[in-house]
Amino acid sequence: MPAVFAMFAFVLLVLGGYGYINQPAQEPPWTQVIPGFAFSPYQDGQSPVDRIEPNADDIARDLSLLAGKTQAIRTYTVAGVFGEIPRLAKPHNINVALGAWLSVDQEANDKEIERLIELAHLPPYNIVRLIVGNEAILREDLTVEQMIAYLDKVRPATELPVSTAEPWHVWLKNPKLAEHVDYLAVHLLPFWEGIALDDAVDFSINTYKQLQQAFPDKPIVVTEVGWPSNGRSIKAANASQANQAKFLRRFIQRAEQENIVFYVMEAFDQPWKSDIEGSVGGHWGVFDSFRTAKFEPDRPIIAIPEWKLLAAASVLVALLITVLLLIDSAALRDSGRTFLMFNAFVISSLIIYVIYDFTLQYHTWASIAISVFLLVGVAGVFLIVLAESHEWAEAMWYRSRRRLLALPKPEDPTAAVSPAFMPFVSIHVPAYEEPPEMLIDTLNALSRLDYPNFEVVVVDNNTANEATWRPVQQHCEQLGERFRFFHVKPLAGYKAGALNYALERTCTQAEVVAVIDADYKVLPHWLKDLAPQFEKPEIAIVQAPQDYRDGAESAFKAICYAEYKGFFHLGMVTRNERNAIIQHGTMTMVRRSVLEEAGSWGVSTITEDTELGLRVFEQGHEATYIDHSYGHGLIPDTFTDYKKQRHRWAYGAMQILREHAGELFGFKRSKLTAGQRYHFVSGWLPWIADGINLIFTLLAVVWSGLMLFDPLAFNAPPLLISVVPIMFFTFKITKLFTLYLVQVKADVKTALAATLAGLSLSYAIGRATLSGLFIGRKIPFIRTPKMANKMAVLYAINAARDESILAIVLLSAVGLIYFQLGFDSKENLTWCLVLVSQSLPFVAAFVVALLSAAPARASACNEMGVKQS
């Protein structure tokens, strides 16, 4: 019942939140006919850049739409069909402030001036003023002297008032220019100056009065005043439909009180302007490009007019997601269900708003392609967040563990008694180029097992140096007949080939095959505790976690040790609840008959252990997991080896995903349950996310370069798109940190160490998943060296060379954006935060690489909770 109440609370929160944000705002009504509109009649899909012009019928329809709403319009050119605008406007009783476009092209300028003068003397005589050039001085297309020359040419040729249109500060900076005009044609666009909406009208009026004081003898006409309905922000100025409506209605009231002649910027949206002014450029119209009014001129203003539809959609999507998340949730406490509901409602609201925001944009084929990519990426992020939320809830807020194998209790007097069922176990130890002293320690530990029925088969495959494998062979002979050693060269199939070779030579009476790596020292009671589980006929795999004995040797190994814990003590425990553990190739035990029935160890992937486990599940067998260590191995000695190990795991996982896609996604028949399919796919999603994130990082670098190269055409991505990767990064770090503190019972330093190590592997995992998914070629099995010499500092730095370069590039982009573009725009600032968050995994790799070359500091390691085993 508490979960039901929580659901109702979230529904009310979404509806109430939307309602609160969209409370009607009372603003001065816009009921009067205004003095004028800036008028560019380009229709959707038309552009002066592409030389796709409107025709006379298009212009006539636009003018009929403005009839009765305005006294006049101002235009920007007299070329071609635009010279017919006065004639087309006359039937609608609309006057014209006729403009000529001036640029660096002198020949084109001369034609514009000649045509302007010509039209000024032709009927229907509804031209009320002339505007020679639009922001030509601001753009630095013309000097003040050149502009004065054009003005002096036009003014004597007509009785109409003549000016040139420039922003207010250009007039104040160039008072000489005012001497050559009949009036000041001024642009007042407080948005471009980053003025907050609530101060924008006062700013505009005060600026107008400042011009009056500076030029008391010149009439002033505000030839552009407005606010965009969408696009990026500038300082305190935010573009939105509601802000546009508020500014215009407030300004029109004040302008009427102050007797200001003005032209609203502008009548119709011009999507083509986004190419030259950025995302905001296409959204200045009172009507959109489809000629639909953006707001009611006299009704209360609502931020999102469609908010009720969005709220309902958010709730419906949230309920659907909640149903999916709560399937098989009987083991969750109410707090866990509430946590999942919270995530469902947050994500559904974001999904709906992202889609809504997408519909407000104007799109070209290129922008559609980019937007679709971004939307797919955002959807992928949300999918991963939901999967990780589910794991978070099941790891933290469970009632009880249904399938976790329990340890025998030491205080139980029967614990010392040998179990009734003790199957014969054949322990296989594959080895390749292993240090003989290390492998001998492993065999000595096996010789101390307090279990009567076992053998050990050691297969050394392809070790070239006889001095490496011969001492191991001799030691096996000393240990007795339980231990058999095989040196095989050549032997194909890498580790899987060695294990299959051992299987063929396994004692006929063996019922269970166990595998340990060459660096593992098992505890004496390993088989005694776990082998009896095979008395249950449904059990095919018994798995214990990997653990390590050298985590206290250095700070590097300490953070690696901390990072390993997450998988073995969190992920494996939750996966076990649905019989979906990842079989890993050490400390695993497999029923021999099942192993042979499944076709032995597979050689088609480089993670033969996980692939075998999946095949066993596909045949309908069960596995069990015990969250207790029965052996300890060695952590990779260098960051290079640490990365190679994770690269192998991730690449192999993608090979398995490709090879078993039919079974995992239900296209091929198998005995996999829905829970098993879910855990195998969702468990690999974070690795796939690292691959996608690597692509995103590279694209972010390219986009940042385009922003720096052409800031007007390439703005920072929309705020919501930038917020998503920041939220995702924060979510991942918070999840990892929380679970380590609460479930692993780690202290803060250990949790930080695990986070650092995990981040440092992002690049290696990303490369592995991309190549594994899209290339898929078989790569060699790369052995993880143990007991290797530590790297010198320069070699350590070189181990993180790629990551270091990417970190430098990303952080340099942040610096360049700050110094060249500034953080006046919230989008710029947020985008730079994205770049910083993207750089952190690469910085972490550099730090971990340095740590791998640092001398041992046992005290520091012990502070992170690492103990010598």
From TrEMBL:
Signal peptide: none annotated. The chain crosses the membrane at residues 307-327, 339-356, 362-387, 684-706, 712-731, 795-819, 831-854. GO terms for molecular function: glycosyltransferase activity. Keywords: Glycosyltransferase, Hydrolase, Membrane, Transferase, Transmembrane, Transmembrane helix. InterPro entries: GH (IPR017853), Glyco_hydro_17 (IPR000490), Glycosyltr_2/OpgH_subfam (IPR050321), Nucleotide-diphossugar_trans (IPR029044). The keyword Glycosyltransferase applies. Its main location: membrane. It is found in: Membrane. It is a multi-pass membrane protein. Its EC number is 2.4.-.-. It holds the Pfam family Glyco_hydro_17. PANTHER family: BETA-(1-3)-GLUCOSYL TRANSFERASE (PTHR43867:SF4), CELLULOSE SYNTHASE CATALYTIC SUBUNIT A [UDP-FORMING] (PTHR43867). This is Glycosyltransferase. The lineage of its organism: Bacteria, Pseudomonadati, Pseudomonadota, Betaproteobacteria, Burkholderiales.
